[in-house]
């Protein structure tokens, strides 16, 4: 009874089990509602909230945290140098999406960089002390030891973009294959016949999938894939500029370029200008991310939009779910959930 300071007629606090019985749901569902997990239907949430109000159930945050060994903190871990975080719009958009999704919960968000071996060792010690309830891993390379460490420590974790098609952690990604494919199909439709691509780092699975889309779009249109038209970048502006200069040297007749990020497209544009090539008259250019850079470039950049803020929301949704279900993932026997959100080509003057 709410009027009795959160205690029932017997003078004791109502339990989580009593709330679950009153609402006609499982204990885990009540826990999800109380912990703010978005993965609960509106009807279920209303039933649980009604039962909480009727019984006067008061979740004791401190006691709950102690009993469940909870810290009410989530770490957003970026295994990259800090400078990359602050120069690439992808990261700030992801942070915005994660922050917005957490704003309705009691969770604190910690931003942790782990770009060097020393930072990784320090992070491993921090996580081993179980100072956070869960981890979001952003921008993970294939050989990164962090995901396996989280598995050993049995810390709930969600990864942005799987490391490979055999990913064992829950992950959220955009349709990189479809995005790469749509970029090349667009260039083909506007009459380009010699289409180059600047890849991101190929130890990132998403960058590999964009290349797969590039190759298949060309093959399906009856074009051969010329390996000289594939240049490797590193997601930086300088990497894009350097790769574009190499492509112009080896294939001066190219008339279309798909860059694996807007930042690399900005570098490619610089190299094209230095070589006296007009965009889009001589060379059509398409980027990836649809960041603010794309809209402010001259000419404005055609780019593949990946819904980065929505990806941040989806990562939080999965992670809160993992945290609410305290049992280790192995004992649950659940197939890891891999969420893939659609991409969309945003056409502008560069193509």
From TrEMBL:
Under the heading Gene3D superfamilies, the entry gives: 3.40.50.2300, lambda repressor-like DNA-binding domains (1.10.260.40)
GO molecular function terms noted in the UniProt entry: DNA-binding transcription factor activity; transcription cis-regulatory region binding
* PROSITE patterns registered for this protein in UniProt: HTH_LACI_1, HTH_LACI_2
Lineage of this protein's species? Bacteria, Bacillati, Actinomycetota, Actinomycetes, Kitasatosporales
This protein's UniProt keywords: DNA-binding, Transcription, Transcription regulation
Cited InterPro entries: HTH_LacI, LacI/GalR-like_sensor, Lambda_DNA-bd_dom_sf, Peripla_BP_I
UniProt domain HTH lacI-type: residue ranges: 14-68
Instruction: Name the chain's protein.
Output: LacI family transcriptional regulator
- State the superkingdom: Bacteria
